[in-house]
Specification:
This protein is of the alpha/beta class and 162 residues long. The chain has 6 helices and 5 strands; from the N terminus they run E-H-E-H-E-H-E-H-E-H-H.
Length: 162
Amino acid sequence: MSKKVAIVIGSDSDLAVMRKCADKLDSFGVENEIRIMSAHRTPAAACEYAANAKANGYGVIIAAAGKAAHLAGVLAAHTTLPVIGVPIKSSTLDGLDSLLSTVQMPSGVPVATVAIDGSENAAILAVQILALSDEKLAAALQQMKLDMEQAVMEKDRNLNGK
């Protein structure tokens, strides 16, 4: 059975950005679940969720939060699973605060971090991690790369009338 991906968001205001992540995972046939947990408001629940994620069949955790975006780090501190952080653009500092809170982790608690609001890349990175032990996902990723190449070449042909 393939591993699942946990998507944890700090607030329901992050849902619009992270639906794209779930949709991208769905397009690869990767089972996923979105949960709302706060590093600051529900820290015990977030820690417990991360601590049990591997036993519950998850292979990767994607965590998204804005402003004081400590969620990915808190989850990473409580699991050995790879954690991917998605800094969310908030009303202040255009998401730079979220980016720095997510990416600046202490030694021993890594969080892979994608661009601000980069939820689709977080999904692709999660699939790449899972594809290390899943040939079907590896083939789907290869096809995605070929499809992107063909789309760019088609746009070039259309632009130049060739």
